[in-house]
Amino acid sequence: MKYIRQFAIILTISFIGEVLHAVLPLPVPASIYGLVLMLAALKTGLIPLESVKEAAKFLVEIMPLMFIPAAVGLTESWDRIRPILIPLLVMTVVTTILVMAASGCVTQAVQRSQKKKNK
Within the chain, where are the H helices? Predict the structure, then answer.
């Protein structure tokens, strides 16, 4: 019963994000609204971490499984993807490298600032 309650809380926040997406005229995906709402609720203590922790952990663990429908959708669109496959692969590799480099730089900067704080 605990997991159902936790999952219901997460679904409710996601639903509120969908409503905000439908109501607000901003080009922001509903999932981003939901994530920001969940972050705000957790940071303010409106929703205690323990009230969603196990369900969230489960959802993160099965996340790779959620990409299967998207991959199947790509195989159905192969006729449209084939002509642009090389540029698509180049963009994917370049952006992956850029994201990895940026993440590494940010992580190093945070670690340096924490070391300076501790001294």
Answer: 2-23, 30-44, 53-61, 63-66, 68-76, 78-81, 85-118
Distance CA(31)–CA(35), nearest Å, equals 6
CB atoms within 10 A of CB 55: 19
What is the Cα–Cα distance from 45 to 57, expressed in whole angstroms?
A: 19
CB-neighbour burial class of residue 43 (10 A; exposed 0-12, middle 13-18, buried 19+): exposed
112 or 119, greater pLDDT:
112
Q: How far is CA 43 from the centre of its chain?
A: 17
Q: Residues of the chain with pLDDT > 70: what percent? A: 100
Rg (CA), the chain: 19
- pLDDT tens digits, residue range 70-101? 888 888 888 999 999 999 999 999 999 999 99
What percent of the chain has a predicted confidence (pLDDT) above 90?
A: 83
What distance in Å separates the CA atoms of residue 35 and residue 16, rounded to the nearest whole number? 10
